[in-house]
Amino acid sequence: MSQPDSRSAIRPAPDQPLLDVADYVVDYTVDSTEAYDTARYMLLDSLACAALAMEHAECVAHLGPLVPGAELKDGARVPFTGFQLDPVQAAYNIGVQIRWLDFNDTWLAAEWGHPSDNLGAILGVADYLGRIAQQEGKAPMTVRDVLGWAIKAHEIQGCYALENAFNRLGLDHVILVRLASTAVATRMLGGDRDAIWSALSHSWMDNGVLRTYRHAPNTSPRKSWAAGDACRRAVTHAINAVRGEVGCPSALTAPTWGLYDVACDGRPFTFERPFGSYVMENILFKLSFPAEFHAQTAVECAMQLHAHVKQQLDAGGVDAIERIELETQQAAIRIIDKTGPLSNYADRDHCLQYMVAVPLLFGRLTADDYGDAVAADPRIDALRDKMTVSEDPRFTRDYSDPAKRYIGNSVQVFFKDGSHTRKITVDVPIGHRERRAEGIPVLMDKFERAMRRRLSAERADRLMTLANAPTQLESLAVTDFMDLFSN
């Protein structure tokens, strides 16, 4: 192939990936009942995560306008607060709330991520536009409209993640939150096909943030607000594009200066499947434990072993244990296999050994268990020191199999008296599609408990009525919906 003339100012046609996303957002009609049903549960689950995050002062400190007093009358509401903000800062706030506890939905493939992160942008823009519409005597979007945008955002982020491992380039998965949120927010704001690909070109030209804050020895709370930051940037790109900002058509493919050459070692993106509604239909919910998803089944294993281990600990203390064998997928080893001192909660909720030690000791794993008070128990680190972590090739194969997408783990404890527990293996967590029937009641309980901890009994009752009446909930104006969560 001939090389393009780097001196030529002739603008090429837009890169095909930009057009493919724009065409999907503009033209594709979601007609999957399963996708809409799952999206409805995803919305409830995400708001439960936001409510639970409000119990943590570190999260609350991020909320509100960028500078004191910079609120917007009749702006987008931030759930469980009295803030009314411009859609850019609202996207950040809501994104931070949903993502803070690492308890929202998950997508695992070549790249990992949490597609419900995009709700920061979607809800912020939807409520902002809805309040403007009402002032003009027009009808705002409905909750069903929000679900439709969420399905498309999930699909964009998830389909890119299937075969494109940004983590292997050192880049964080929120690059795909910014991509998906940019696409749908531009359309929500009235942008056409050209505005969407233009906005996407600017999203890609931002490149990506480093994964440094997700890995030892630099794990930090930034991982809890990084997705909100991506939502904020996405809405900025969307607003600019709708105002007519000129895009860069070869943002991906330009020699030397394009994303492929700068960040992807010259390799173009590859795709397993066309855009549809596959990702929402197969999304993973975190229902039982606020834990990095590769560890969810390991925590289930540890919970099953707790009673046996507790007997030994009561009789002989931690010294009664000789070793603990963990077998997991290759991805978990890369992300959460961690030794040495853990300096903060962000370190702990991304440490496989910590997330197994706590349920072995206490028979539970909650957000509070990542705090300094619980972590000060010397038995936790003593158990971590006794753990070995190895890859089970079957777990890795099943993890990558598009027909399975399992997240298997096994745990077995060996004692110094020569006895041992059973080897407990769990292939799929309760939030997996294969356990959806088992998981939905748990999700609904998670939602109800979270609402009753943050809202009045009257509002919580109203929300539970709506949550159990899908048609009524989906027909509700998004502004009325958001009002139910506002102080």
From TrEMBL:
Entry superkingdom: Bacteria
Keywords for this protein: Lyase, Tricarboxylic acid cycle
The MmgE/PrpD C-terminal domain, residue ranges: 289-463
Residues in MmgE/PrpD N-terminal domain copies: 21-271
SUPFAM superfamilies in the cross-refs: 2-methylcitrate dehydratase PrpD
Family: Belongs to the PrpD family.
Name of this protein: 2-methylcitrate dehydratase
Organism per entry: Novilysobacter avium
Lineage, opening ranks: Bacteria, Pseudomonadati, Pseudomonadota, Gammaproteobacteria, Lysobacterales
